[in-house]
Design brief:
Length: 378
């Protein structure tokens, strides 16, 4: 369910992009602050910092510009065009799970006063904050409780792209949104580097840089252990949803993550969008992937923490005819019980360890799976 919330937000974003005034993105090259991420950029000036978010559809152009000014200093003269934000921010709202994950990593959850989609967030301190009232539940990302938002008066709202009508309404209410498009980065370390954006805004810039350097080190070292592996298992991913089966494109974040972990994943498309999911019919999936070595998928089930082979067959009896089912080589992640979406974006090294243990078990023989579990008969 959570996965399809993200898809719907992305669709809304595509619609809203057509209404943006086109202005050139400042840099098509990686800035001095960034090594992997291409979706944002910042430049420090003597009296302020310029933060820009790239339009992920028309990548030469700007989606939004922000002017960050130290809250202890007077407002400088002759500022460039952009939304002014006083930093470090002390009152934030998060639309969805990913910003909560970033704030948690930075030990900056004290700034979080409200969040949407609370039922999907697997961060204990956020859940406890909602129970005690220090964090307000403000509905869902597509239809937030505007009265509560007004009462909270957040300095910024961390959000994924949204419908233009909602964006206009929030602007009319004087609320500033930071539109985070990390989901368009095609590499795991590219997405992880967005933690620096949250660090810049919350005054945790040094902490963000330290966490990212650790993540990069862990990820790179683990990937290097896999690079020389010759045998790479073929892979079937995700499950049937409605009448189609969505799988990641060959140039996507997920595909790169699977390959870095030692799997053979070569699905190709003629598109270039990193977030693009390919809709295939069941017949196409059967033809291309019925003999895959391993099947891996993510799902949301708040009632049962562990999925079994029996439950999977009850869902669709044809699943039992796939080779991974017969060989009991199916692994699943239930995001209702593990913080996959909260951690995967900014700590892809942790996910990589799981995937390497599944695809290349000899490399980390003693690793205990953190996000995925192997499906058994019962």
């Amino acid at each position: 369910m959570k996965h399809f919330i993200l898809i719907s937000l992305a669709i809304g974003f595509l619609w809203s992009c057509s209404f943006q005034k086109k202005e050139k993105f400042s840099s098509n090259q990686t800035s001095n602050h960034l090594q992997y991420a291409s979706g944002f950029y910042w430049e420090k000036k003597p009296d302020y910092t310029i933060l820009e978010i790239r339009n992920p559809i028309d990548t030469e152009y700007l989606l939004e510009r922000y002017i960050l000014i130290d809250s202890k200093k007077n407002l400088p003269q002759n500022l460039p065009k952009g939304k002014i934000i006083r930093i470090p921010v002390k009152n934030t709202v998060a639309f969805g799970t990913i910003p909560c994950g970033a704030l948690s990593e930075l030990k900056a959850l004290h700034t979080l006063k409200g969040a949407t989609d609370i039922e999907y967030i697997q961060i204990d301190s956020v859940i406890q904050g909602v129970k005690t009232g220090t964090i307000q539940s403000i509905g869902n990302s597509r239809m937030p409780n505007l009265e509560q938002l007004i009462m909270l008066q957040p300095e910024i709202i961390f959000t994924a792209p949204m419908e233009q009508s909602l964006q206009n309404k929030l602007t009319e209410l004087g609320l500033t949104t930071i539109i985070c498009t990390e989901f368009t980065e095609s590499t795991p370390l590219g997405r992880a580097e967005w933690l620096k954006l949250y660090g810049l805004l919350t005054g945790r810039e040094t902490v963000a840089d330290s966490i990212f350097r650790l993540t990069e080190k862990n990820y790179t070292e683990a990937k290097q252990k896999v690079d020389s592996v010759i045998h790479r298992p073929s892979l079937l991913v995700e499950k049937k949803y409605g009448q189609v089966w969505y799988i990641p494109s060959g140039n996507s974040y997920a595909a790169n993550l699977y390959r870095d972990a030692g799997a053979d994943y070569t699905e190709q498309t003629d598109g270039s969008n990193a977030e693009k999911a390919i809709p295939l019919s069941f017949e196409q999936i059967w033809t291309k992937y019925s003999e895959a070595d391993i099947w891996i998928f993510k799902y949301y089930d708040a009632k049962q923490p562990i999925c079994s082979l029996k439950a999977l067959e009850q869902e669709n009896e044809i699943y039992a005819k796939f080779k991974p089912f017969k060989k009991q080589q199916i692994y699943a992640c239930n995001s209702a019980f593990v913080p996959y979406y909260e951690l995967a974006t900014f700590r892809p090294d942790l996910v990589l360890y799981d995937l390497i243990s599944i695809f290349q078990p000899k490399i980390f023989p003693n690793h205990k799976l953190q996000f995925f579990h192997k499906l058994t008969a019962e």
